[in-house]
Amino acid sequence: MLLQGKSIVVTGGNSGIGEAIVLAAAAEGANVTIDYVTHPEETTALIAEVEAAGGHAVGVQADITQAADLQKMMQTAVEAYGRLDVLINNAGIETRTSLLDTTEADFDTVMAVNMRSAFFGAQAAARQFIAQGGGGLILNISSVHEDWPMPGNIAYCVSKGGMRMLTRTAGVELGAHGIRMVNIAPGAVSTPINASTEADPAKMKALDAAIPLGRMAQSSEIADVVVFLASGKAGYMTATTVVIDGGIMQGSVGL
């Protein structure tokens, strides 16, 4: 198993890409801590699914926009499994508003969930890695929109652009401690955040036509790359972004 015995924290781990990461990591032997804010029943059901398959998972309700809750999240993993090996900053939101339409509240909320949580989550995880020794890994679920403009969704793009620079800079800073930091940038993925697009046949036809592989990704396909990066097979990768987009950044402009 690629992740046997590794202690992994997944923010926003009870739905979408986060849920797929939890299942894939547990199937590869990881001990998983699932962070959630709402829908505790979904977390309970996910833990039961992991355990039924022979894996190990615990849940923690934490507001990732608050540094104290991020620390609680790390401590939950350490108390449950003795250490922390991987933090996956997965939780994210968007407002789908333009520069002219985005309110202060919209902007602050997106930045808090997407960017602030990744920054202070990385800080808390890095401190734990250094304290326990042996290095560690921080994976950020970013987006192709860290680099590719998406008119009408500007706060989201700004937050993901910030995540890209966080990864590049912190990856350099933390290398001396044996700590790696890598962004994963998915393109269009079939998750709840894209439910409105999937419900519109015209939008889906246009999107599929813009993707060289002709379809959206499944959450499990993102999770498979997470497992690879968290394994020993990717130990020389840091301060960079891995793009998983079906070729959309090369095949289209301005979606």
From TrEMBL:
InterPro entries: NAD(P)-bd_dom_sf (IPR036291), Sc_DH/Rdtase_CS (IPR020904), SDR_fam (IPR002347). Its EC number is 1.1.1.47. It holds the Pfam family adh_short_C2. Keywords: Oxidoreductase. The keyword Membrane does not apply. Coiled coil: none annotated. It comes from the Bacteria. GO terms for molecular function: glucose 1-dehydrogenase [NAD(P)+] activity. The keyword Magnesium does not apply. SUPFAM superfamilies: NAD(P)-binding Rossmann-fold domains. Belongs to the short-chain dehydrogenases/reductases (SDR) family. This is Glucose 1-dehydrogenase.
